[in-house]
């Protein structure tokens, strides 16, 4: 992520019966002006996971919220680049999917911030959490597969980032702290080399401290 040329979504409405569908349609029409360009937040966002996810929702529920991030990227020459930003994860699409937004604030090397997004959903057939990562600045996408591991991490892998294999992982180090790692392997996963290690701290407003 963060100046890696992708080395880091649509409105979907699901209604179970005709009656509720008509009611929902009337509600949406009432909320939107005829020529409105805005979509109400409650059409896309969700208060929590869909009931059908069951225990699978726990895989990502611990990461939902806003996080302050200290990015640490390892350059090709071994030097480290440190920057700050935010990570926001929220339930969307009736709670059937998760949306991630990564923000890297401007730095001396780059006057504009970087913004990336991803969407994850549970695949009941494979019992995994596929993810599509989007880098809009470079018109790039990457598809990941993975899910929770026995040791409690969230691990996702892809071969869409220009290397044989990339692995992204989230590891909780406390109730309000997480470490994100981006690693790559050129030997089929036998060994992994670190590309970045980012420290996430749950964001708290000054008034709530």
Globally, the shape reads globular
Fraction of residues in β-strands: 35-45%
Q: Looking across the biggest beta sheet, what order are the strands in? A: 1-2-3-4-5-6-7-8-9-10
- Mean pLDDT across the residues is 83
H and E order = HHHEEEEEEEEEE
Largest sheet data: 10 strands, antiparallel, barrel
Strands, count: 10
| Helix/strand/pairing category | mainly beta
| pLDDT < 50 runs, ≥5 residues | 2-32
Count of individual helical segments: 3
Radius of gyration: 19 Å
The separation of the N and C termini measures: 30 Å
Helix content: 10-25%
Provide tags for this entry.
single chain; 209 residues; mainly beta; ten-stranded antiparallel barrel; 3 helices; disordered N terminus
Protein architecture, described:
Strands 1-2-3-4-5-6-7-8-9-10 form a ten-stranded antiparallel β-barrel. β9 and β10 form a beta hairpin. It has helices at 18-31, 41-44, 58-61; strands at residues 65-74, 80-92, 97-104, 114-121, 131-135, 140-148, 154-158, 165-174, 177-185, 193-202. The model is unreliable at 2-32 (pLDDT under 50). It is built from three helices and ten strands. The longest helix is centred in the N-terminal third of the chain and has 14 residues, at 18-31. The chain is mainly β and 209 residues long.
Write the layout of secondary structure elements.
Elements (H helix, E strand, L loop, with lengths): L17 H14 L9 H4 L13 H4 L3 E10 L5 E13 L4 E8 L9 E8 L9 E5 L4 E9 L5 E5 L6 E10 L2 E9 L7 E10 L7
Antiparallel strand pairs: 1-2, 1-10, 2-3, 3-4, 4-5, 5-6, 6-7, 7-8, 8-9, 9-10
């Amino acid at each position: 992520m963060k100046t890696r040329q992708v080395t880091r979504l649509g409105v979907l409405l699901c209604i179970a019966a005709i009656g509720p569908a008509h009611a929902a349609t009337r509600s949406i029409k009432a909320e939107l002006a005829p020529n409105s360009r805005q979509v109400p937040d409650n059409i896309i966002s969700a208060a929590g996971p869909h009931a059908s996810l069951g225990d699978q929702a726990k895989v990502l529920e611990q990461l939902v919220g806003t996080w302050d991030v200290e990015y640490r990227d390892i350059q090709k020459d071994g030097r480290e680049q440190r920057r700050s930003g935010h990570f926001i994860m929220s339930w969307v699409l009736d709670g059937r999917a998760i949306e991630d937004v990564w923000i890297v604030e401007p730095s001396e090397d780059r006057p504009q911030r970087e913004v990336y997004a991803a969407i994850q959903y549970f695949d009941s057939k494979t019992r995994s959490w596929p993810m599509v990562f989007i880098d809009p600045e470079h018109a790039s996408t990457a598809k990941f597969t993975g899910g929770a591991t026995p040791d409690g991490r969230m691990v996702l892998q892809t071969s869409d980032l220009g290397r044989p294999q990339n692995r992204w992982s989230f590891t909780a180090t406390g109730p309000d702290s997480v470490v994100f790692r981006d690693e790559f392997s050129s030997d089929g996963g036998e060994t992994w080399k670190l590309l970045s290690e980012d420290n996430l701290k749950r964001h708290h407003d000054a008034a709530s401290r």
